[in-house]
Amino acid sequence: MDAPLEKIADPTLAEMGKNLKEAMRMLEDSQRRTEEENGKKLISGDIPGPLQGSGQDMVSILQLVQNLMHGDEDEEPQSTRIQHIGEQGHIALLGHSLGAYISTLDKEKLRKLTTRILSDTTLWLCRIFRYENGCAYFHEEEREGLAKICRLAIHSRYEDFVVDGFNVLHNKKPVIYLSAAARPGLGQYLCNQLGLPFPCLCRVPCNTMFGSQHQMDVAFLEKLIKDDIERGRLPLLLVANAGTAAVGHTDKIGRLKELCEQYGIWLHVEGVNLATLALGYVSSSVLAATKCDSMTLTPGPWLGLPAVPAVTLYKHDDPALTLVAGLTSNKPADKLRALPLWLSLQYLGLDGIVERIKHACQLSQRLQENLKKVNHIKILVEDELTSPVVVFRFFQELPGSDPGLKAAPVPSTPSAVGRERHSCDALNRWLGEELKQLVPASGLTVMDLEVEGTCLRFSPLMTAAVLGTRGEDVDQLVACIQSKLPVLTCTCQLREEFKQEVMATAGLLYVDDPNWPGIGVVRYEHANDDKSSLKLDPEGEKIHAGLLKKLNELESDLTFKMGPEYRSVKSCVYIGMASDDIDVSELVETIAVTAREIEENSRLLENMTEVVRKGIQEAQVQLQKANEERLLEEGVLRQIPVVGSVLNWFSPVQASQKGRTFNLTAGSLESTEHTYVYKAQGTGVTPPQTPSGTRTKQRLPGQKPFKRSLRGSDAVSETSSLSHIEDLEKAEHLPGGPDAPEADSPEQLAPAGAEQPAAAQSRAQRPDDDKPQVEEPESLR
């Protein structure tokens, strides 16, 4: 690229291109070094300070910018746009610098140049997207073009609006129709920009009986228009979707155009599916958008171009009204907004533009075809062949349900369908977060739909050019989905069993948390637990913290977390996803036994603390009493320092040493007289055993906790147990069995003439340990 720069006659342009290339190289190299340092922070000089008088060079300033961009990130950057800007991105960025330079030209040259840039860009966009004889408005805010179009429609329908202003609108209120599937906040934005009250907005519901549930209901729209006309209102503008913001569905634009022509309504179309107008084959529903009054395009994300404006194409014959509405301007700076797009379109060319859009559509088709072969995945698309947006979700079939039916709205009363819906939503959120971490180049997003619930959206037209998504990334995404399905299905199957086990276990309370994607949530109810209260429970929090620590020490495949209960502040234990067949009964029993042990140990410690405190008080009282007795026994004279020493020398007092010792096991205060007499401490009482679980499962070598035994090991254990029972039954029929009479001596157990085993002889000669041995007198021997 250096050779073409050398051929540029204008030295300022050549220097500008060289500086931009050098700046981008420095920023990208700095980011690459940051990644190679494995997340180590750079020492950034972002602390505010005084402006240096001598100034700084370009390298130092760019280094500061790089530190501000990446130096303060504690985690890995979520966006990788800098890595995939590419050469066409550099051209778009050059447009902003070039625009600042062009603005310094004289007025005549500036006017000619800006007019040429604006006309060329408008002509190219209208031809690429099949919008003949259109005008273009370039704007930074994506919704700004629609607001200008609304102003144009108001000036067109209200001839006296320039003179009378709001009084004209008050006499005949305008109505703007929006689909229920439109972008959130669009209607509020229009009202704020136009100064209209919210009653001027009319939300048109989507289909409920026939067609897509994300398409505008045309019949209901016509009914609304007739009602507004009867009330003296003016139907002004209709916003249709060629690819809704949620699932990418396209309204019936052809039918809507006929309805708008019938009632004189301005038709505006927006949506991601408008990008397919550049392809050779376009669906009829999207192709009808070329006949609308205006449309908004976003070529920046479609083509992977940073900092390029959005474009609103429109058709209107009155230049004065477009100037009043703000769609056209005489300011050169407004016309220069098209410069980055003008440069980028020339760099890519028609073939490059079509290839990028075609590649994104092929990625979506590839994902659709692969997901059709995956079980437990439902695809929500309007037209599988033409929609560039793929929306899917994981689902678990209910017994007796039809998987082909769409999910119904969540009922107000708790039911099996409602719980299943909430559970699937939580699992889909978990699946979406996992896939975004495993395949970041996919650009996958998680969204909540009113009817279907939580779904995952793949929209390569908005992300592929920026993230550099390839076909291999789509294959990796499908492979990751298939690898996560066993975890999802196993968790769904174990949820109900876990709930039943917890409800059947004393001391445990099952917590129904619809937002948790794991096996379930459980809370231990201790003795002092107030079930009716929802306030913070310090004792329960302490028990659950100890329980969480014990469960994590088991090193099982399950994940355990502690948090507040759903709709409460009490602590609970959350059990995560199950990757394999889990023995739920053992899991629940372990939780109950461990929590009970922690509670008993805590209570034992509290009781011991109280006993020790009372024992110390009692010991102080007894010691004080002993001192008083010693004072009475020895007399007052012996307490005087000099006199007492003389008396003790002539007549020593034999005073016994009395002390007190506290027995922690018995919880009682004892005398130390035994210690001074026998010169040894007593052994005391044997402490009680620590409570333990009622069942300890025998695990195979390498088997982790809460795992079900393999079938082979079960068969071996069953065979060994049966053989052991048969041996016991045979032993019962032997003479020495449990039912045989007791033998007087070992000789009676052996048949006649047989030698006794050595062990039997030694047992016969060895005296009984339990009976006392009395030595025989010598006279009787």
UniProtKB/TrEMBL annotation:
Domain of life of the source: Eukaryota
Protein name: Pyridoxal-dependent decarboxylase domain-containing protein 1
Organism, scientific name: Camelus bactrianus
Biological classification of the source: Eukaryota, Metazoa, Chordata, Craniata, Vertebrata
